[in-house]
Amino acid sequence: MNILVVRNDKLGDFITALPAVYVLKQHNPNNRVVVCVAPLNRALAEACDFIDEVIVDNGGTVFELAKKLQNAKIDVSITLFSNTRVALAQFLAGIPKRIAPATKIAQIFYNKRVVQRRSKVEMAEFEYNLELTRALFNDISLEYKKPLLAFSDAKKIYEVFCLNNDIEKEVVAFHVGFGGSSDANWNLDEYEILIREVIKQDKYQVVLTFGPDEKELYEEMQKRLYDVNAVFYLSLEGLVYFAKLVSNFKLFISTSTGTYHVASLVGTPTMTFFADSLFASAARWKSVGDIKLQKHYMIPSEKEKKDELFEEVKRELSRL
Predict the structure, then answer these.
(1) 15 CB contacts (<8 Å, ≥6 apart)?
(2) pLDDT tens for residues 116-157?
(3) Is the pLDDT reported for residue 182 higher than 70?
(4) How far apart are CA 116 and CA 132, in angstroms?
(5) Is 167 helix (H, G, I), strand (E, B) or coil?
(6) Is 248 helix (H, G, I), strand (E, B) or coil?
(7) Considering 109, 230, 242, 263, which has the largest number of Cβ atoms within 10 A of its Cβ?
(8) Cβ-contact 285, 270 below 8 angstroms
(9) What gap in Å lies between CA 46 and CA 44, rounded to an integer?
């Protein structure tokens, strides 16, 4: 059976789809599992040995997307997050069975609609995605391996990185950037305090990571932390290289953006900051890794409570 899984949005959203993709392949290894992803996620998808083919949605016309899907000879599709363009493309491609959540006007183009009411946040996003696979196989096991993604050359990548940056201690990484669907974060002054709290212990090497589009932030943090021993890493080698590197870190600290999901995907312990609202909470956006390796903080909007939480996080970092 040729099974298409559609999740063609942001990095973190795509990672929440991977457990569902994995269990579909495990249910019957003879299934050919195809994913439709945004260009950003192509390399990461191609690195997953439980994905047989990657279709990249470049954002072209609905007819261009329909042609790509038609060429893949799909028997059934599971669309984890839909819009009218994606739904119509599958209809035009003639996919016989089309499964999706029963939301939005796009649902009229699917012939198997599943009521989930994700806005209630009764489970995490990746758990809702897993549940959708039961619309295809009601006896499917929803268990998946953790970490879900591992690389045979990750240790070598890390050793070269450490050699090039004179790193001789375990790495605690901070990703101070703010993007994706994250709704809360510390400001740069607060991050500077937290970073210095770790550095002054002299137990770990602090590495600050930045996405390829965060050069200004990269330069700003270099100016702020000119007087300490920190490594500033601007990620230009691609997402898979970044995942390999992060998989060796002792701890990855960030807001709930895509890089948090990458770290959890490859088994790295995380400390993550979420908005204090149901929509943006850890209850909805906890990542796919071992929950015991994820430490979540909800940042309140009220200043007094936020200040209290900041001191709590600071104390936590002082005890690493």
Answers:
(1) 44, 126, 258, 261, 262, 264, 265, 287, 288
(2) 888 888 999 999 999 999 999 999 999 999 999 999 999 999
(3) no
(4) 9
(5) coil
(6) coil
(7) 263
(8) no
(9) 5
Helices 188-199 & 303-318 angle (0-180, nearest 10): 20
Contact between 187 and 179 under an 8 Å Cβ cutoff? The reply is no
Residue identified by tokens 């953006």 is: 257
Please compute, for residue 292, the number of CA atoms within 13 A of its CA located in the half-sphere on the CB side.
2
- CB atoms under 10 Å from CB of 166, counted, come to 9
Residue pair 34/2 in contact by the 8 Å Cβ criterion = yes
Length of the chain: 320
Alpha carbon distance 310, 290 (integer Å): 25
The residue behind tokens 């240790």 is 155
Contacts of residue 302, defined as CB under 8 A and 6 or more positions apart, other chains included, come to none
In sign, the C-alpha dihedral spanning 285, 287, 290, 296 is negative
> First-to-last CA distance in the chain?
49
Which residues lie closer than 8 Å to 72 by C-beta, 6 or more apart? Answer: 2, 4, 34, 53, 55
Q: CA–CA separation, 196 vs 309, rounded Å?
A: 17
Q: Which residue has the tokens 């690195």?
A: 47
Walk me through the domains of the chain, giving residue ranges and CATH numbers.
Answer: 2-135 (3.40.50.2000), 154-318 (3.40.50.2000)
Coil, strand, or helix at residue 272?
strand
Per the CB < 8 A criterion, the answer to whether 284 and 121 are in contact is yes
Q: What is the pTM of this model?
A: 0.95
Residue with tokens 């009764």: 122
**Which of 26, 17, 24 has the alpha carbon at shortest distance from 2?**
24
Name the band, by pLDDT with cuts 50, 70 and 90, for residue 179.
Answer: low
